[in-house]
């Protein structure tokens, strides 16, 4: 299996040119995202991560597929209290795999 495609990470209708990436919110319906003019940046980011995790799970890399360079995995859920409000923490870990050189360079993925 090769590195993930633009469509596997950002949806079937994702496109790019030299200066922009375009995604369609409707492509994230499979992760229970409801497109609206009032979607928050947080909800859109959550939809992208949830959608991408279905196509680029970390288990693909850790299971031996060294052609993958990015993997997403669930972390351990916890409960935290902010002020007097209890919140459920649902961590997602995004791992970037590349030959070790000590720096993070997005061009390596």
List the helices and strands and how they pair.
Layout: H1 6-10, E1 15-16, E2 21-22, H2 41-55, H3 58-62, E3 70-74, E4 78-82, E5 85-89, E6 92-96
Antiparallel strand pairs: 1-2, 3-6, 4-5
Question: Key terms for this structure?
Answer:
109 residues; alpha+beta; two-stranded antiparallel sheet; 3 helices; 22% strand
In sequence order, what are the helices and strands, one letter per element? Answer: HEEHHEEEE
Structural class: alpha+beta
Largest sheet, if any?
2 strands, antiparallel
Q: What proportion of the residues is helical, as a percent range? A: 10-25%
Strand arrangement within the widest β-sheet reads 1-2
Quaternary structure state of the chains depicted: single chain
Radius of gyration from CA coordinates? 16 Å
Distance from first to last alpha carbon: 15 Å
Average pLDDT reading: 91
Uncertain runs? none
Total beta-strand segments: 6
Mass-distribution shape: globular
Q: Note the beta-strand portion.
A: 15-25%
Tally of helical runs? 3
Question: How is this structure best described in words?
Answer:
- This protein has helices spanning 6-10, 41-55, 58-62, and strands spanning 15-16, 21-22, 70-74, 78-82, 85-89, 92-96.
- It is an alpha+beta fold and 109 residues long.
- The strands form 3 sheets. Strands 1-2 form a two-stranded antiparallel ribbon. A two-stranded antiparallel sheet has the order 3-6.
- Strand 4 and strand 5 (85-89) form a beta hairpin.
- The longest helix is centred in the middle third of the chain and has 15 residues, at 41-55.
- The mean pLDDT is 91.
């Amino acid at each position: 299996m090769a590195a993930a495609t633009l469509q596997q990470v950002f949806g079937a209708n994702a496109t790019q040119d030299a200066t922009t990436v375009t995604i369609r919110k409707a492509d994230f319906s499979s992760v229970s995202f409801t497109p609206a003019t009032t979607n928050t940046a947080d909800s859109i980011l959550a939809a992208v991560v949830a959608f991408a995790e279905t196509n680029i799970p970390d288990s693909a890399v850790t299971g031996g597929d060294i052609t993958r360079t990015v993997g997403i995995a669930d972390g351990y859920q916890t409960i935290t209290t902010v002020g007097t409000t209890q919140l459920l923490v649902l961590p997602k870990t995004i791992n970037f795999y590349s030959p070790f050189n000590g720096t993070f360079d997005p061009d390596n993925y």
